[in-house]
Amino acid sequence: MARLHDIVIDCARPAVTARFWAAALDGYAVAPYDDAELARLRALGIAGPEDDPTVLVEPRGVGPRLWCRLVPEPKRTRNRLHLDLVSPAPP
């Protein structure tokens, strides 16, 4: 039996999309960049996190990770991913 591990979101601006989902989902944050990761990006010709073609959003506890991944083609139809969210009713 399989279990959900990652959700991949195809997008034009991974860093922006990752920040959106990290803010929208309780208990999630954009994965931090350490010196080794920044050096790896520079070695690939990527200036920094804002230009990273794959940005990770991690849960602070249990839950699937979100990968925001750059795709070259423009969106043509419906969203590339749809998540149904639930939030508590206002007091």
Instruction: Say how many strands there are.
Output: 4
N-to-C order of helices and strands: EHEHEE
Q: Summarize the main sheet.
A: 4 strands, mixed
Tally of helical runs: 2
Query: N-to-C terminal Cα separation, in Å?
Result: 40 Å
Q: Which of globular, elongated, flat, extended, rod-shaped describes the shape?
A: globular
In the CATH scheme, the class would be Alpha Beta
Overall average residue pLDDT: 87
Proportion of residues in β-strands? 15-25%
Give the spatial strand order of the biggest sheet.
1-4-3-2
What integer value in Å does the Rg equal? 15 Å
Unreliable stretches covering 5 or more consecutive residues: none
The total domain count is 1
Q: Pairing-aware structural class of the strands and helices?
A: alpha+beta
- Which fold name is given in CATH as the topology? Signal recognition particle alu RNA binding heterodimer, srp9/1
Q: Which architecture would the CATH scheme give at its second level?
A: 2-Layer Sandwich
- As a percent range, the share of helical residues equals 10-25%
Domain Glyoxalase-like: 7-87
Pfam families: Glyoxalase_6
InterPro entries: Glyas_Bleomycin-R_OHBP_Dase, Glyoxalase_6
Protein name: VOC family protein
List keywords for this structure.
Signal recognition particle alu RNA binding heterodimer, srp9/1, alpha+beta, Glyas_Bleomycin-R_OHBP_Dase, globular, four-stranded mixed beta sheet, VOC family protein
What's the short story on this structure?
With 91 residues, the protein is an alpha+beta fold. The protein contains two helices and four strands.
